[in-house]
């Protein structure tokens, strides 16, 4: 009888499912569409279901945790949590070479932005492994970072002499080269800064500006990607990644691409069109009431000037800080895709 009990216990142990792995996940801004429509459903529902319960998730966001924006990836590398996602530009103080992922004014639509990001992916993989002890899982877009002005503008030239809230270091350099003054103002403080004249214009995603009510304190919208596309990098602590078995790793990589990264990119272009409609009233606004900002269409002269500024000032400045190795890698990857070379 004792032998039978031992045998039954052994069979039960063999039949028992593997213990579930619980991942602590820190998402990007909780109030923005990328988190609400893609991150939260993927980590809370899609991945656990696809794993048949062998992967469970404890999800929060960095703003809910009150994390400093520059601390998100370093804390990930230290193993404070397992997975984190936020705007790559928040990490450039620790990794200046990462600025090459999000170059202003190069990609004017979602397809070209995706091509640029895909070309940069091997560089980003190496940067995150070396700088943050992290494995890159996905790179998804925020909408392009466009220009809201509480001043009358008709072209890119009209930004000269104005104070403009920048969305990243490359954007600030671009503004400086245009003759504008780049000003560092947090997202939450922008409406008050525009209203008081602390800044004349500010750069953010069109949808973010709509949701945050920037249309109440600005009159003109220039919908060009002066701040790039603000790619959001999703990464896992490398030690935690290496501790997973090969099946779990393969499942996460496949699911995050099919059910998070690809859908986020697929809707990026329509999201921009809808956001512009919501801010200007030019078209239908699916998000709510359309507003009445003046739409400033970029001209061929604006785009030509942007290209000249990038080649003469912005990209050489970045290359001098990142170093020749990263300049050469960028030229051979992103540069080949977008048709731009850093001399």
Can you characterise this structure?
Strand 6 (163-165), helix 6 and strand 7 form a beta-alpha-beta unit. The protein folds into 2 domains: 19-142 and 230-266, D-Maltodextrin-Binding Protein, domain 2 (3-Layer(aba) Sandwich), CATH 3.40.190.170; 145-228 and 285-298, 3-Layer(aba) Sandwich (D-Maltodextrin-Binding Protein, domain 2), CATH 3.40.190. Helix 6 crosses helix 12 (300-322) and helix 12 crosses helix 13 (324-332). It has helices at residues 2-15, 33-50, 62-65, 72-77, 110-132, 169-178, 190-196, 206-211, 238-243, 246-266, 268-280, 300-322, 324-332, 334-338, and strands at residues 21-27, 55-61, 83-87, 134-140, 145-149, 163-165, 181-183, 201-205, 220-222, 232-237, 294-295. The protein has 343 residues and is an alpha/beta fold.
**What is the general shape?**
globular
CATH architecture of the largest domain: 3-Layer(aba) Sandwich
Strand order within the widest beta sheet: 7-6-8-5-9-11
Terminal-residue CA separation: 82 Å
**Whole-number mean pLDDT:** 92
- Enumerate how many helices there are, as a single number: 14
Topology-level CATH name of the largest domain: D-Maltodextrin-Binding Protein, domain 2
Q: Helicity range of the residues?
A: 40-55%
Which spans have pLDDT < 50 for at least 5 consecutive residues?
1-17
The secondary structure category is alpha/beta
**Beta-strand content bin:** 15-25%
Main sheet attributes: strand count, strand direction, barrel closure: 6 strands, mixed
């Amino acid at each position: 009888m004792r032998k039978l009990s031992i045998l039954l216990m052994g069979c039960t142990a063999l039949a028992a499912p593997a213990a579930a792995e619980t991942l602590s996940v820190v998402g990007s801004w909780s109030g923005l569409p990328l988190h609400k429509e893609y991150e939260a459903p993927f980590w809370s529902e899609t991945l656990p279901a696809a794993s048949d319960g062998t992967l469970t998730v404890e999800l929060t966001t960095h703003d809910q945790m009150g994390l400093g924006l520059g601390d998100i990836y370093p804390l990930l590398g230290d193993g404070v949590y397992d997975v984190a996602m936020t705007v790559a530009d928040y990490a450039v103080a620790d990794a200046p070479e990462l600025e090459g992922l999000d170059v202003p004014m190069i990609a004017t639509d979602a397809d070209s932005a995706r091509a640029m990001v895909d070309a940069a992916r091997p560089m980003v993989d190496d940067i995150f492994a070396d700088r943050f002890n992290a494995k890159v899982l996905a790179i998804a877009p925020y909408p392009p970072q466009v220009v809201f002005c509480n001043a009358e503008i008709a072209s890119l030239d009209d930004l000269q002499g104005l104070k403009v809230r920048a969305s990243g270091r490359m954007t600030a350099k671009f503004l400086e080269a245009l003759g504008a003054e780049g000003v560092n103002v947090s997202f939450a403080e922008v409406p008050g800064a525009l209203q008081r004249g602390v800044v004349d214009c500010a750069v953010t995603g069109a949808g973010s500006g709509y949701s945050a009510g920037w249309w109440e304190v600005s009159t003109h919208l220039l919908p060009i990607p002066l701040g790039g596309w603000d790619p959001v990098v999703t990464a896992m602590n490398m030690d935690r990644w290496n501790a997973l078995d090969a099946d779990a790793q393969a499942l996460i990589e496949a699911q995050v691409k099919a059910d998070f990264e690809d859908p986020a990119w697929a809707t990026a272009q329509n999201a921009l069109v809808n956001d512009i409609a919501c801010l200007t009233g030019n078209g239908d606004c699916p998000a709510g009431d359309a507003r009445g900002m003046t739409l400033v269409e970029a001209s061929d002269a604006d785009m030509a000037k942007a290209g000249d500024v990038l080649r003469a000032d912005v990209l050489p400045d970045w290359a001098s800080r990142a170093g020749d190795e990263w300049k050469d890698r960028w030229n051979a990857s992103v540069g080949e895709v977008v048709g731009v070379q850093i001399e």
